[in-house]
Amino acid sequence: MSVRSHEISMTAMYTGTTISQTEQTALMRGEILVQTRPYSAWGGAVTACMYLPMTRSQVWQQLTDYPRWVQYFPDVIQSEVLQRGEVKRLYQVARKAFLIFTAQVEIYLNVFEEVQQRIQFRMERGTFTDFTADLNLQDCGIGTLLTYAVQATPNVPIPSIFIQQAMQFELPENMRKMRQVICRN
Length: 185
Hints:
The chain is α+β, with helices and mostly antiparallel strands. 31% of the residues lie in helices and 45% in strands. The protein has one domain (3-64, 115-184): Alpha-D-Glucose-1,6-Bisphosphate, Chain A, domain 4.
């Protein structure tokens, strides 16, 4: 097993799936691997994985610039660090247009960083019933694998199938945008 295959398998263990040779090739070509799962009657969970042709330290430096997240995720219109230290506090606002209305959500997050390895986002309060996200980085050849897992339940009662579908279609686009912004700098 090559180093690259071993490291992708390590990420596969995190996501709870086995990544095939075809999927490994797809990652290296720039595709985003996505796995959704039911989380609650009104929520959803999704894990996405992508390859970045940069070192982990370069990726880390950009990911931990939290005000910059408005560039990575088009629906995030504000991302502000409220407190620095061992545990950071973030405030984020996102706005999403639907067919006949626009929804706006806000969230206060506690952020736990394991330098150049993992960022955990835990909801303190906000317009969600619950929200957690984990971002993991792993070396992969000359680049980095980024795995982003989110599970959330909005306060608005929307059946989980719709939440999962939205996550499945929007997270890959957001990840592509994130890669585009990170790799451009």
